[in-house]
Amino acid sequence: MADEAGATTGAPPAPAPYDPDPANPADPATPAAPAEPADPAEAADPADAVGPAGAAVRAEGLGLRTRRGWVFRDVTMDVAPGELVAVTGAAGSGRTSLLLAAAGRFVFNRGALAVGGHTLPKASAAVQRLAALGYVAGAHQPEPALTAAEHVRERLDLLGLRRGRRGRREHARALLADSPYDGDPDALGRDLDPYRRQLLCLALARMARPRLIVVDDVDLGLDTAERAVLWGVLRAVADEGVTVLASCRETGGAPVDRTVHATDATKEYA
């Protein structure tokens, strides 16, 4: 995990909108295994991508209870394709687990959940193919020893978009320059501040041309100006047709279409 770094001060310039050119485990509190990379024959160069249609997300009474208690509970939402939805709640309310469940990467044992017309958990593999993770600590975050540009090159390889060594390097830098990420392409993952970790992971998520993106802790470690810019970028992604679920403690006037509140899972039913 990358070391935590303080957020930069001052209002950051608004980055240009990005126009890119499991089986259930024994312990239900354990995330499901991530999906395999997309078939290279079906993968398209992000530089030639056309905006995808967003995925609807519908949950009714969704929850996960383990031997240790509730992880999240009583979540009901009806998200239309292309909406930006904030998932709010205090620490311990299960916001991160809820996001991963919506992306087909975490189990649940109460209620019902369907994403893009696929019913979970039966269709977890299909949901994993259409959903991508932005920054989610412990699940999708910058590798400490890789530069920002190397993250893009690695993702190109995973998507089967291989080029010659020199061409791949230049292509990765071009994609990064066209993304919301506004930092040094040679900065190591361990040296990125929370704001640029979010932007880099969002750029990586967009490369797979997903119909749903989930982003965790949008307000963690960011100052007011950075939060405003990041919410603006997420709004632009949703306006392009991608459904976006973003967790935070509070929205603070963010340009969301609706807010889903995660019930405090540390409190038992009366």
Description:
This protein starts with 56 loop residues before the first strand and ends in a 9-residue tail after the last strand. Helix 3 packs across helix 4 (165-177). Strands 6-7-8-3-9 form a 5-stranded parallel beta sheet, sandwiched between helices. The chain contains 6 helices and 9 strands; from the N terminus they run βββαββαβαααβαββ. The longest helix is centred in the last third of the chain and has 16 residues, at 224-239. It has helices at residues 95-102, 124-130, 148-158, 165-177, 194-206, 224-239, and strands spanning 57-66, 69-79, 84-88, 110-115, 118-120, 131-133, 212-215, 243-248, 258-261. Residues 1-11, 16-50 and 265-270 have low confidence and may be disordered. 25% of the residues lie in helices and 19% in strands. It has 270 residues and is an alpha/beta fold.
Question: Secondary structure elements and their pairing?
Answer:
Elements: E1 57-66, E2 69-79, E3 84-88, H1 95-102, E4 110-115, E5 118-120, H2 124-130, E6 131-133, H3 148-158, H4 165-177, H5 194-206, E7 212-215, H6 224-239, E8 243-248, E9 258-261
Parallel strand pairs: 3-8, 3-9, 6-7, 7-8
Antiparallel strand pairs: 1-2, 1-4, 4-5
